[in-house]
Each structure stands twice: as C-alpha cells, then as structure tokens.
Amino acid sequence: MKTKHLLKLIIVLTILSSCSSVKTTSDYDKSVNLSDYKTFGFTKESKELPTNDLVKNRILNAISSNLKSKGLTESDNPDMLVDLGLKTKEKTDYQSTNYDMGGYYGRRWRVGTSIGTTNTREINYTEGTLVINLVDAKKDQLLWMGSGTSVVSDKSVKEENITAGINKILSSFPSLK
Questions:
Q1: Is 102 contained in some domain?
Q2: Which Pfam families does UniProt cross-reference here (predicted)?
Q3: I need a labelling partner for 117 at 20 to 30 A (CA). Which of 60, 109, 134, 165 fits?
Q4: Is this structure's pTM higher than 0.70?
C-alpha cells in the first residue's frame, strides 16, 4: 500500500516539477456564477496526500495562494471545497531510427549497392494526472475541474516548480476580484 502512495507522490511531484510539459484541461458548470463563492477549504482527503509534510504543504500552499490571488479566502467553514485526485497510466512508445548507406554517386552515374537497416526500441513510461476539483460545499456539486497531465520522470521537485505547475492548472479558473 505504501508503494502505491509513493508512486502517487512521485507522479504529483513530477507533473508539477516539469511544468513546461504539463498538458492542462479545464471545464466548469456554466449554469453556476462562480463569483457567488467567497471562501474555500480543502477536503480531508486532499489534506492527507500520501507524501511527506514538506511536499504536501508545498502543494496545498500553492493551491491556496493561487485561489487567494483570485479573490477567495481560505476558511474552516468554506462554501467551496478543493478536492485533489491522482491517476497514473503505464504507456509504451516505439522509436524507430533508419540507417541507410548508399553506393558511390558520380557526376552522371551511380555505382554500388545501397544497404539499409532500422533500429526500433520500446520506451515504457508512466503518465500521471493531477486533478483539482472545486466543489460546492453544501450541494456537493462540481463547479470547476482542472487537470494537468505529464510524463513521470526522475526530476527533483522544487517549491517554484510545484507552484508553477499548480498555477498552470488553475490558470483558467477566473479571478473573482
């Protein structure tokens, strides 16, 4: 079970640390006026991310700072909840390289035989997705959803990379100021 939690941690951190390669999507309930929401808080599950306290706090602080910059206030009795989700998928890619060698070419003729070979290698990797759901605290209704997807790598995670990744995911959430 701990291995599964560590894998999720690695995925979140990698997604956030390689912000430039994060593919983001977002959607929202168009029937809801988001400016009606003034406060936010984190779900219990989001506060219990499977990671050490330092990294967990960096993730939660980055989300909190972003939402505060958009006009929301963090509260113990929020009208909007932040719920985080993680998903991984094992993928395989194939990379082929062609090697061709031709004969001698003169000014007006070609002499010799050409030879070619192809080298194909299999590349296995893990793709990770971090989902940020903003939910109406009373109605349990999804208001806004944003996600970031990236290839999991061995990059080290720094606070500025986590912040940049979170900001990219939340960039389409409107300012409520």
A1: no
A2: DUF4136
A3: 109
A4: yes
Q: Pairing mode, if any, of strands 39-42 and 73-74?
A: parallel
Does residue 56 form part of some domain?
yes
Domain that holds residue 142: 2-92+126-172
User: In this structure, what token pair is assigned to residue 29?
Assistant: 């309930």
Closest alpha carbon to 16 in 174, 153, 175: 153
* Cβ contacts of 141 within 8 Å, gap of 6 or more: 29, 32, 135
